[in-house]
Amino acid sequence: MSSAAASTTPLADEVTIIGAGPAGLMAACLLRQAKWNVEVLDQRFDVSARPANAASYNLTLTPAGRFVLAQADISMQDCGRPIVGRRILDAGGKVHGFRYGAATEDYLLSVPRHELIGRLCDRARSLGANIVGGVHVIRTDPTQGDVVVEEPSRALSRLQRKHLIAADGVYSTCRNDVVHATQAGMSLRDNGVVYTTLDIPTGEARASKLDPSWIHFSSGPGTMVIGLPNADESFSLVVEWSGGHTGTVEDRAQAEEILARFSLNRLIGLVPDATTALVGRRVRKFSYVACQRWETGRILLMGDAAHAMPPYLGAGVNTALVDAFAFAKAVERTTSFEEAACAYERERQEYVGNLDSLARQHEDALVSGEWGGPRWRLRQRIDRAAEQLLGRRTIYQHLIFDAPTKCVRGQIR
Ligand SMILES: Cc1cc2nc3c(=O)[nH]c(=O)nc-3n(C[C@H](O)[C@H](O)[C@H](O)COP(=O)(O)OP(=O)(O)OC[C@H]3O[C@@H](n4cnc5c(N)ncnc54)[C@H](O)[C@@H]3O)c2cc1C
């Protein structure tokens, strides 16, 4: 039995969670272990299915993310690939590699998103959570706890619920209701970058000697391709470009127009028949959120609904998992949902603020072309030398590896 399940919980209650993503499902598992009645609502009909027209992109799990999953007896080790650092494939054909750090735990586990969701779903259901798909939440009332939902039949109904956790992602419907109720500030922005996904099969990746222990980046003017390895040594690519349109890639002409931007990209060059692969894929845009208040007493925001940041730190899913853990721990220490929600917000805001600043710095460096360039590479060398000779950790290492791990492990003892 996990430690979370073994601890004494003074408060057993009921909660409706909106969104069956990593944050919502992790919260469902942990609150079920604390004997809460848990209902999860999601707009997708089959919550754990892989989306048909988008290869599920990969996510990187940090030590803290892996630790939180282990509290619900979930391991991703068998379907993941440990990555020890970043490799930049530069336009001149050179490869520059930088390790995340010298400590044993300084690695990320690259896992397919649909596998993570599938395992979280199975675990939440086996613990007794009621997961209901095909329910689109239209709005919430943060003072009364009411939820207006569109049922699969398209009928609208009003549900009266005691407590709500809004884990409905970056385009959260519930966030506006919380912001309105608390009169807090929030920003929602996008930097004009859109993305889609492609895959490099195992054979092509091996033949080209792409090392599956590293995350690979290959960029050009206004473009970036990120390759994350899978357990079978194939690579899952996130393909990004500036100024594109969202929607589905309709035909070969549109696919070729997109691919023309990547004509010299070394990772795209390894995708067999990229034009055919791209037709039918969905193109989405990256959006970012910073929200001053995350709770109203009756409803609280978790994961991307509260704080979506640029994905280049590989921190979003881990922050979502640690959010769920922090709330479950706050519940153990307090006597009401309201108190736990306040404690959770206080505890998480500072860390997330620091992470957001760092994510924006990374984004600026990527957009300006500085990232991967000579100055950036020199900085990486200096940082690695400082770590080896003086034991000094960078802000990146502190925020991704050290602080969240210390925080989650510290709460369990
Ligand atoms: C291309 C890409 C690559 C990324 N790579 C990484 C990475 O390598 N490492 C990392 O840590 N993070 C990464 N991230 C970020 C990470 O995916 C998110 O931070 C994480 O998924 C947030 O989890 P969440 O549960 O808060 O929200 P989500 O995963 O967005 O889940 C929200 C859920 O709510 C449901 N929903 C939404 N609206 C409604 C509604 N109105 N009614 C009912 N249900 C609703 C959705 O169907 C969904 O199931 C990446 C993101 C992208 C887009």
Write a structural description.
The protein folds into two domains: 3-52 and 113-190 and 291-369 and 395-412, FAD/NAD(P)-binding domain (3-Layer(bba) Sandwich), CATH 3.50.50.60; 193-285. It has twelve helices and 21 strands. Helix content is 37%, strand content 24%. The protein has helices at 3-6, 22-33, 63-71, 113-126, 174-182, 202-207, 252-260, 274-278, 316-333, 337-368, 374-390, 395-412, and strands spanning 14-18, 37-41, 58-61, 81-83, 85-89, 95-99, 108-112, 130-132, 136-140, 146-150, 156-160, 164-166, 186-189, 193-200, 214-220, 223-229, 235-242, 247-248, 282-285, 288-291, 299-301. The two termini are 15 Å apart. The strands form five sheets. An eight-stranded mixed sheet has the order 6-5-15-16-17-14-19-18. The chain has a five-stranded parallel sheet with strand order 8-2-1-12-21, sandwiched between helices. It has a three-stranded antiparallel sheet with strand order 3-7-4. The chain is α+β, with helices and mostly antiparallel strands and 413 residues long. Bound molecules: flavin-adenine dinucleotide (FAD). Flavin-adenine dinucleotide binds next to helix 2, strand 3, strand 9 and helix 9.
